[in-house]
Amino acid sequence: MSIAIGHGGFTVDAWDPGYSAALAADALAELGATSAELDLDVEVPAADWRPVSPAPDAAPPAVMSIADGVRRIDARVWSHDAGVVPPSPGIAASYAAGIVRCTPGDGAPAQLAAVEVRRSLFTASPYASDIKTTAGVYRVEAAADDSMDGLSLALQQRLTELEVDLSIRARADDAGADDLLLVDGPLRGRTHLPRTVGYIKTHHTAYLPAPQAAVVSALGPGQRTPVFLMGTSWRRHAWYVALPVRSAAPWAGVVRCEGGADMKPDEAVRLADSVTLALPSLAGVDYKDPRAPQNLVPIGGLEKLLRHRLGDPRLLYRSLRAAADR
C-alpha cells in the first residue's frame, strides 16, 4: 500500500507492526555489506543476474511436506541445590513440532501428518531433577550455561532436533513418497535431510552485493533470483523468491530459500524452479494473516494447531507453582 502525502509519499509495510519487519531497516541500509562467502556464478555469471521465471518443463512437487515448531516458556524456575549458593536459574518450557502435507496448486487443505509435544526443564545445574506436575512432566535438559541466552538456545536446539526426528519418522511411515520437505526457518542442522528446503520469511542480514540485491527488488510474483552458494558458519545453496503481494514496501513478499550445499548446480536449479512454482499457491492472504504473504497458509494453520497443543499457559503455570509448593 503506497499513500502519497504532499510532494512526497510513504509505503506501509504489509506486515502487522506487532511482528518484526519482513526486511529489517538496518539490513536495508547495509545492502552490499556482508561477511558471508558468496559464489554468485552457480547458475549464471554474477554480471548476468536478472529475475528468473521457472523453466517451461519445470513442475511443482507432487507432494510437499511442511515442518514447523513452536515454543513457549511456561515459567522461570530456580533449582535450590543442597549446599549450593546461589540457586541455579532455569526455564520450564513447552515445545511442539508438526508436519502437514499438501499438494501445491490443487486448493485442498493441508493434512496433518505428525505432531509431538514435549515439556522440559532447561538448566545448567547438574543436580536438577524432573518436575512432575498434574499437567505433565518437565524432563531435565542440560543447557551449556545458565544465562537466559544459553537456556533459550538449549530450548531452540531441542525443538530443532524434534523437528528433524519427526521429519525422519514421518517419511519412514510414508515409504516411497517422493515429497519435498519445507522447513520453516533456516536449513541449518537439517542439511542432511534429502529434498529439504529452508524457508526464511524475514531478512535480518543483507547477504547480496548491491547489483544482485537490486535484482531481488525487481522480482515479479512467481519469479526468483539465480541460485547462489552462501557460506557463513555453514554452506548452502540459496535463492530469493517473490510471492504475490499488494504492498510496495522494500522486498515485500520476498522470501529466501535454502538447499543443501552438496547438490550439483543443475540439481539446485531444478529444485529452485520446483519450489518457486509451488510457493505462490500456498501464500498467505493479508485479511487472514498479519504476516502474509510470506507466512504460508499451511504454516499458519500448523502454528495455530501446535500452539493449541501446547496447552493452557495459565494451567501449566499453576501446576508448576503447585509442584514447587509440595
User: Count of DSSP E strands?
Assistant: 13
Mean pLDDT: 85
Q: Beta fraction of the residues?
A: 25-35%
For the terminal residues, how far apart are their CA atoms? 56 Å
Total tally of structural domains: 1
Helix content: 10-25%
Q: Structural class of the helix and strand makeup? A: alpha+beta
Please outline what is shown here.
With 326 residues, the chain is of the alpha+beta class. The protein is built from 6 helices and 13 strands. It has one domain (9-325).
Structure description:
The chain has helices at 25-29, 148-173, 210-217, 265-278, 297-309, 313-325, and strands at residues 2-5, 8-11, 37-39, 64-79, 88-102, 111-123, 131-133, 136-142, 180-184, 196-200, 228-231, 235-242, 254-260. It has one domain. By secondary structure, it is α+β, with helices and mostly antiparallel strands. It has an 11-stranded mixed β-sheet with strand order 3-11-12-13-10-9-4-5-6-8-7, sandwiched between helices. A two-stranded antiparallel sheet has the order 1-2. Mean pLDDT is 85; it is low at 1-13 and 27-32. The protein contains 6 helices and 13 strands. The chain is elongated.
